[in-house]
Amino acid sequence: MVDWEKVHGLDPGDQAGIAAFAGEVLATADPARDLVVAKSLGSLALPAAAERGVPGIWLTPLLGIEDVRRAAARAAGTTLLIGGTADPYWDGAAAAATGAAVFEVPGVDHSLERPGDLNGTLEVLSAVLSRMDAQLAVLAGG
User: Disulfide engineering: 113 pairs with which of 61, 65, 76, 121, CB 3.0-4.6 Å?
Assistant: First the structure.
């Protein structure tokens, strides 16, 4: 987990600063070799990844942010969006409209958990990891 403030000196509320940082990190990314796996605020890297053609798996992306949503649409062929219907930041219709691969989990919150249900949460995490594995196989051409 990235602690934006402690590790990078960024204010988690500074979306432009986080997006700029992501652009710097991805400046040398090789689309044939690299992959972004990011969660929540990390989805602010989606525009930089899309611009550079770097594929990504985006957990609980902030699709309410227009730049993020548009970037997901531009990179639809190499993008997997994962979210839950109990996440106030998730928008299943917006995710589907991007044309990207979407894995939506009913009743799951922004932490990809089923609050108060440890076994249910473990099942969700297993399903998410299986879907991520399948996406990696697709990206690898197999």
Answer: 121
Residue 78 DSSP label: G
pLDDT at position 24:
87
Give the predicted TM-score (pTM) of the model: 0.91
Positions in the chain whose pLDDT score sits under 70: 1-8, 142
Kind and range of the H or E element at 121?
helix 118-139
Q: Which residues touch 81 (CB under 8 Å, ≥6 apart)?
A: 58, 61, 63, 72, 95, 98, 100, 101, 102, 103
Residue 11 pLDDT: 73
